[in-house]
């Protein structure tokens, strides 16, 4: 009997332990942290791909940058990370404008650009001095400013985005291409070239073909140029091909030999890019770069044409925040007032 009683006690003890273990698991099932396997299984659904957009904020035209950012952020559900690039003396103002306006919800990083990297690489005698501003060359140094991204969008500040920036980001870059641009020969028929007097759309408008270094390139002067105001770039290819070093080489050669055309149909940043990327770039959907809106204040376009555009670019002298300009109502609808009251619109003579 004593043995039987001892066996019963052991069985009772084991039963109680089993019940306690089951109860413990039930109670703690909902409170224990999920294991690594659970987290990994949800990563593709929960983590969106980050779309890096690089845009400069120059002191005298910071309102343009903020309008562009507002238009991008308002027209997409994508996870955008804005890299706002400025010179040291503007960084505080950039942050205040964003944090004290409707843009406070955006995801952004402020990046300082050191103009000393341009020392000895820019001729001071450009017919358009405003194009010599250091931030105009930020696009040359994308891998030095942006480190953790494979693909990057660069935009000039005088643009407004009307489409979903995800579409532009999804631009396919061919194997071995470090960037995609818009060809200057792909202008929609609504943009009649005859209305854009003085506009250059070939290499002849950017390079001085009287110079031996240009002739030796073997590029036909009638080759269609491209506009680097909108860029989709592959950072791996950019670094692999040492694009920045190549661009700096042609900047220095221009300082020594004055290789760029005196007409400078675009800007001093365009010419070296035309050389380095000749025959080695992919193309952007033309609707994602409707440009030359700042070329002629008398050249207006149909409302239907402008509504179809995914991105509008006021490249040229006539900016939409100044006078005279065209289609400034489209730009002004995205304008974010300066909390400091420094940047003001000028739409009257």
TrEMBL record:
<keyword id="KW-0325">Glycoprotein</keyword>
<keyword id="KW-0328">Glycosyltransferase</keyword>
<dbReference type="InterPro" id="IPR029044">
    <property type="entry name" value="Nucleotide-diphossugar_trans"/>
</dbReference>
<dbReference type="GO" id="GO:0016020">
    <property type="term" value="C:membrane"/>
</dbReference>
<dbReference type="GO" id="GO:0005794">
    <property type="term" value="C:Golgi apparatus"/>
</dbReference>
<keyword id="KW-0812">Transmembrane</keyword>
<keyword id="KW-0472">Membrane</keyword>
<keyword id="KW-0735">Signal-anchor</keyword>
<keyword id="KW-0808">Transferase</keyword>
<feature type="transmembrane region" description="Helical">
    <location>
        <begin position="6"/>
        <end position="24"/>
    </location>
</feature>
<dbReference type="Pfam" id="PF01501">
    <property type="entry name" value="Glyco_transf_8"/>
</dbReference>
<keyword id="KW-1133">Transmembrane helix</keyword>
<dbReference type="InterPro" id="IPR050748">
    <property type="entry name" value="Glycosyltrans_8_dom-fam"/>
</dbReference>
<protein>
    <recommendedName>
        <fullName>Glycosyltransferase 8 domain-containing protein 2</fullName>
    </recommendedName>
</protein>
<dbReference type="GO" id="GO:0008194">
    <property type="term" value="F:UDP-glycosyltransferase activity"/>
</dbReference>
<comment type="similarity">
    <text>Belongs to the glycosyltransferase 8 family.</text>
</comment>
<dbReference type="InterPro" id="IPR002495">
    <property type="entry name" value="Glyco_trans_8"/>
</dbReference>
């Amino acid at each position: 009997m004593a043995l039987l009683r001892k066996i019963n006690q052991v069985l009772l003890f084991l039963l109680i332990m089993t019940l306690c273990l089951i109860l413990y698991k039930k109670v703690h099932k909902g409170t224990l942290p999920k294991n690594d396997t659970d987290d990994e299984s949800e990563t593709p659904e929960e983590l969106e791909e980050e779309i890096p957009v690089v845009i400069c904020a120059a002191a005298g035209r910071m309102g343009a940058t903020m309008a562009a950012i507002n238009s991008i952020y308002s027209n997409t559900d994508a996870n955008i990370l804005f890299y706002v690039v400025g010179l040291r003396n503007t960084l505080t103002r950039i942050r205040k404008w964003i944090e004290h306006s409707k843009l406070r919800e955006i995801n952004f990083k402020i990046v300082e650009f050191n103009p000393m990297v341009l020392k000895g690489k820019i001729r001071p005698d450009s017919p358009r001095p405003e194009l010599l501003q250091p931030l105009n060359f930020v696009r040359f140094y994308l891998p030095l400013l942006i480190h953790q991204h494979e693909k990057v969008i660069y935009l000039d500040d005088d643009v407004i985005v009307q489409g979903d920036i995800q579409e532009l980001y999804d631009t396919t870059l061919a194997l071995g291409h470090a960037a995609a641009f818009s060809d200057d020969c792909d202008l929609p028929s609504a943009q009649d070239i005859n209305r854009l007097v003085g506009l250059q759309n070939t290499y002849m408008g950017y390079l001085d073909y009287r110079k031996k270094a240009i002739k030796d390139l073997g590029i036909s002067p009638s080759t269609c140029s491209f506009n680097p105001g909108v860029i989709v770039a592959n950072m791996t290819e950019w670094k692999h091909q040492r694009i920045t070093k190549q661009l700096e080489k042609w900047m220095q050669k221009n300082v020594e030999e004055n290789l760029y055309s005196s007409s400078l149909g675009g800007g001093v940043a365009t010419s070296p890019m035309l050389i380095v990327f000749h025959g080695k770039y992919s193309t952007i959907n033309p609707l994602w770069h409707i440009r030359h809106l700042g070329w002629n204040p008398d050249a207006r376009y149909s409302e239907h044409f402008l509504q179809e555009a995914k991105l509008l670019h006021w490249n040229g002298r006539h900016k939409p925040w100044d006078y005279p300009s065209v289609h400034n109502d489209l730009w002004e609808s995205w304008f974010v007032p300066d909390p400091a009251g420094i940047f003001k619109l000028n739409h009257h003579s």
